[in-house]
Write a structure and sequence with these properties.
3-dehydroquinate dehydratase; alpha/beta; 5 strands; DHquinase_II_CS; globular; 5-stranded parallel β-sheet
Length: 145
């Protein structure tokens, strides 16, 4: 089975209790189970991680680049300003799908810019937890072209 990393940035570990009107009531643990289950169905060995630490996230991306591991990334707040994260993403040697639970373009103006989007294979946003399902499906489709 092909390994896939699903990486989540700051505050996503608080899913289910954090702004449920924006992010829904699905817990982070439920998101992990969902990604692992959907990944298995697509033939992937999915590992889901979350950190509030920018340096840790950059390190995970470096490891993914070195191993040519596809990545689904929800950079969360780092989306809008982390050039370190953007530069780590640019080093990836396998597809990168940027995901967002909400639609950043429909929210506050500071959320409208993604420094990651320009180096991602594609971006999926605004579909709640289904955004992750769509990202894994996209990786599957890219892998089986």
């Amino acid at each position: 089975m092909k390994k896939v990393l699903v990486l989540n940035g700051p505050n996503l570990g608080r899913l289910g209790s954090r702004e449920p009107d924006v992010y829904g009531d699905t817990s982070y643990d439920d998101l992990v189970k969902r990604c692992e289950r959907n990944g298995r169905e697509l033939g992937f060995d999915v590992e889901v991680r979350q950190t509030d630490d920018e340096a840790e996230l950059v390190g995970w991306l470096h490891s993914a680049a070195d191993a040519a591991t596809p990545v689904v990334l929800n950079p969360a707040a780092f989306t809008h300003y982390s050039y370190a994260l953007r530069d780590a993403c640019a080093q990836l040697t396998a597809p990168l799908i940027e995901v967002h639970i909400s639609n950043p373009a429909a929210r506050e103006s500071f959320r409208h810019t993604s420094v990651v989007a320009g180096v991602a294979t594609g971006t999926i946003a605004g579909f709640g937890m289904v955004s992750y399902d769509l990202a894994l499906q996209a990786l599957h489709d890219l892998h089986h072209r």
